[in-house]
Design brief:
- The structure is a homodimer.
- By secondary structure, chain A is of the alpha+beta class.
- Chain A folds into three domains: about 70 residues, Orthogonal Bundle (Arc Repressor Mutant, subunit A), CATH 1.10.10.10; about 150 residues, Beta-Lactamase; about 100 residues, Enolase-like, domain 1 (2-Layer Sandwich).
- The first copy, chain A, is about 45% helix and about 15% strand.
- Chain A contains twelve helices and ten strands.
- The radius of gyration of chain A is 26 Å and the shape is elongated.
- At the A-B interface, strand 4, strand 5, strand 6 and helix 10 of A face strand 4, strand 5, strand 6 and helix 10 of B.
- Chain A binds a DNA duplex (30 and 30 nucleotides) through helix 2 and helix 3.
DNA sequence: GCTGGCACTCACATGCGAAGAGTGCCAAGA
DNA sequence: TCTTGGCACTCTTCGCATGTGAGTGCCAGC
């Protein structure tokens, strides 16, 4: 177990390194923080911290920089979440309040997060699986062609074409539309399958094939979790990554384009509260020099999706966590209102 | 006017520079291209080309690199469009054929373009203004709250909430829905305003306010050109920009995030055919060291939107133009089918 | 357990010289 | 008039040696 002072030293190292981007030495540390001890003592502590793997030297005769393990300790034990100031909170609310639809909410959230944290922001669209059905609409585009439109309580709209096995009259369509909505409107996605199970039985024999086709398309749409989309912004902030970023920036950009990777990453964070993943804790190789701070957000008490930021492991964790948490909270409010 | 041989020299310089990314000298030129003259002659030609502003030296005693003006001449007079090979064409078609909906078509197109050109791909969603209405759907969410869903012939769906001035019964809503669709279905957006102008007159006095509100929301949705969205991909290719890219990449990323800039850029290219804008021909400062190759695409003969790539001025113009043209063509086909 | 002192180690900047690529110019030849 | 070979000149780049400074590790003393 590390002594209290050594933890202080680690905290100081993290703070200084995050601020200066340069390895921090014992002398500079004692000058900037009043630890009450001499550089020599700090050197001993640093040596111990290095033995434990919390900090490392880029090369001999250079200062120390925190390791992933060091950041982890910092985040878990040494740093709190820095709350937003009142003006900041007001700015967030104002900015989000102007949104006109779901796309706009997500777009604004991304911009906001990127600006606040000066990092790459990632916002997942409210997930289908946990939301409820607001309305299902069926439109006859041709005698044997129906467009299925699904509207969720979060304002999301999904549409699908359905090619029917047989022509389907407008009366039947209206019937199906009415029956379908009376059963599923307001219900959670998970419950839909069994609610519509026996629906084909209510129709004439000739229409049953079509009804089944429509229903299975609907269920497909509901299940298709991989349809989860996300929006990314603030990639220009990647250029502030560090001096050596030509090498680091590329795999990060690639990973960001592979939305699958990000979705998996967000999905892995089972904790509905804030999750911080640091450097090599992230399975994806291209993101090994980044940290991801994510949190769930939702319209009610329940989280329907995640948002977060991707930045260098050398990031201002308290500030970033504060911004992420605040934004998630306000987005939740906005969604609840609409 | 430049002599034939000098044009050859310019072409050779562009080709070599694009290939090697290094200033090209007279000796290397004569070695790689059989121009039939000696390096000394080429030097004279180069000197003339430099006087005319087609090429420049980064510094004395270095080779020459093409200027924006040089690339312009190259694109206009010296280079054709390199057609895709048969296997490439097949790959394009296969890749795009798997798309399930409009979002997917756009997403696949972006990926494809980025891969083919190894540059940043930009695809505009099929624009609303030039398309036709397939269907307008109205849903009562609450007594005085209606959701308006607009479906276009390109498969795009837009939805809006409408807060009605007065409660609006389901019969009235059904009436409005029917009348609205009979008038506007299949019509071009531009024609919609006058088609629905007198629609409120057909309703009871108490409903007219609501009808007007719904209609004006519809018109707003149609007009809102700034709702034009686009998808961007292949930003990781920016890292191949050049050795000095730390400076160049940042403004480009910023410009790419400002979708407004890109939309303006695409919109400016009035030529429905291919447009190439090179370096300082682009008004936006951050893109001054890039070139943009764009082309319209559409489901019928008419272009409904643009797509293109953003890359360094030092790009393979013939190849890029070939890829852009081919992709646009196939996307048009896909859209026409659906 | 803390502290000051001291030797040691590297990275980094600086300066210098050699090498190399490329140009510009000139005089001769077609 | 255009082309060509030759030659001097200009810069960049690279390698190398050197000096400097930040920072460490260790040790003896308090």
């Amino acid at each position: 177990m590390l002594s209290e002072r050594r933890l202080q030293v680690l905290r100081a190292i993290v703070q200084d390194y995050v601020g200066t981007e340069e390895p921090v030495g014992s002398k500079a540390l004692t000058e900037r923080h009043n630890l009450g001890v001499s550089p020599a003592t700090v050197r001993n502590d640093m040596s111990a911290l290095e033995d434990e793997g919390y900090i490392a030297q880029p090369h001999t005769s250079a200062g120390r920089i925190p390791t992933d393990k060091g950041y982890r300790l910092f985040v878990d034990k040494l740093a709190g979440v820095k709350p937003m100031t009142a003006p900041e909170r007001r700015a967030i609310q104002n900015f989000l309040d102007g949104a006109v639809d779901l796309d706009d909410v997500v777009a604004r959230t991304v911009r906001l997060l990127a600006q606040l944290t000066r990092q790459v922001a990632v916002v997942q669209y409210p997930s289908l699986t946990r939301s409820t059905v607001r309305h299902v609409e069926l439109l006859a585009l041709a005698p044997a062609r129906v467009m299925l439109v699904l509207i969720t309580d979060t304002g999301r709209v999904e549409q699908r074409m359905v090619d029917c096995p047989a022509p389907f009259g407008e009366p039947s369509l209206a019937d199906l539309r009415a029956r379908l909505n009376s059963r599923v409107a307001g219900r959670r996605f998970a419950d839909v399958p069994q609610l519509v199970e026996d629906l084909p039985d209510a129709f004439e024999h000739e229409d049953r094939g079509t009804v089944s086709t429509v229903l299975s398309t609907l269920l497909e749409t509901l299940v298709e979790e991989n349809e989860e989309r996300l929006m990314i912004g603030g990639t220009a902030n990647l250029t502030r990554f560090g001096h050596d970023f030509p090498l680091t920036i590329r795999p990060v950009l690639e990973a960001l384009e592979e939305q699958v990777v990000l979705l998996k990453l967000l999905g892995e964070a089972k904790d509905p509260g804030m999750t911080v993943r640091i450097g090599h804790e992230i399975a994806h190789e291209g993101l090994n020099s980044t940290s991801v701070v994510s949190v769930g957000y939702g319209s009610g008490g329940e989280a329907v999706a995640k948002l977060g930021v991707v930045g260098p492991t050398r990031m201002d964790y308290p500030g970033t966590m504060g911004a992420v948490r605040a934004v998630a909270r306000y987005v939740g409010q906005i969604l609840a209102e609409s």
